[in-house]
Specification:
One of its GO terms (biological process) is division septum assembly. Belongs to the TRAFAC class TrmE-Era-EngA-EngB-Septin-like GTPase superfamily. EngB GTPase family. 34% of the residues lie in helices and 23% in strands. It is built from five helices and seven strands, in the order E-E-H-E-E-H-E-H-E-H-E-H. Strands 1-3-4-2-5-6-7 form a seven-stranded mixed sheet, sandwiched between helices. The radius of gyration is 16 Å and the shape is globular. It starts with 6 loop residues before the first strand and ends with a helix. The protein binds guanosine-5'-diphosphate (GDP). Guanosine-5'-diphosphate (GDP) binds next to helix 1.
Length: 196
């Protein structure tokens, strides 16, 4: 599919307000600042499709984009803001879990992690929820340009080894919006999920 024609459809404050559970969705999740918005903008070749909401504590929205009719990219709220009250964090975690476990049209999950700080608790939780629901996962180790190529490969191998523990369909790749690393792999994966 041509991801460059992706357009914004709607925002939802929580999963109860999402559009009907039909068609195919691929969701993007990650800690705040992991590079999720940049990755979506790179994929779609649009400067500000996904806007970076840098204000923690503000209502976070689920943003839906349509690649073509019935095929949607879902930008889930970033998690892990240090400044957010515990109660609100838990509320959002539950909502993310509910989406990953109950959304029937969800066919794939992309989890973005800064290559320098991968596999934090909530990252692992996201993967676990997806694997439990038999949703395939693509982990993108973002900002790969920040590491020299040796260190980059070490991180990739380490995360790949750690991911074996999930015993599910979990693929790990390097990514950089800045240097356009891994964009083809992301596109191929999305194509396969949308084709199924
Ligand atoms: P989000 O909170 O997950 O949506 O993250 P953003 O996409 O807003 O990115 C967070 C910060 O990381 C911003 O300052 C970006 O400029 C930076 N960033 C994102 N992707 C890359 C990348 O591929 N390379 C580098 N060096 N910085 C990046």
């Amino acid at each position: 599919w041509n991801y460059h024609v992706t357009r914004f459809v709607t925002s939802a404050p929580d999963i109860r307000h999402l559009p009907s559970d039909t068609g195919t969705e691929v969701a993007f999740a990650g800690r705040s600042n992991a590079g999720k918005s940049s990755a979506l903008n790179t994929l779609t070749n649009q400067k500000s499709l996904a806007r970076t909401s840098k204000t923690p504590g503000r209502t976070q929205l689920i943003n839906l984009f349509e690649v073509t009719e019935g095929k949607r990219l879902v930008d889930l709220p970033g998690y892990g803001y240090a400044e957010v009250p515990e109660e609100m964090k838990l509320k959002w975690q539950r909502a993310l879990g509910e989406y990953l476990e109950k959304r029937a049209c969800l066919r794939g999950l992309v989890v973005l992690m800064d290559i320098r700080h991968p596999m934090k608790d909530l990252d692992q939780q996201m993967i676990e929820w997806a694997v439990d629901s038999e949703i395939p996962v693509l982990v993108l180790l973002t900002k790969a340009d920040k590491l020299a190529s040796g260190a980059r490969k070490n991180q990739l191998n380490m995360v790949r080894e750690a991911a074996l523990a999930f015993m599910g369909d979990v693929q790990i790749e390097m990514f950089s919006s800045l240097k356009k690393i891994g964009v083809d792999k992301l596109r191929l994966k999305l194509d396969s999920w949308f084709a199924a």
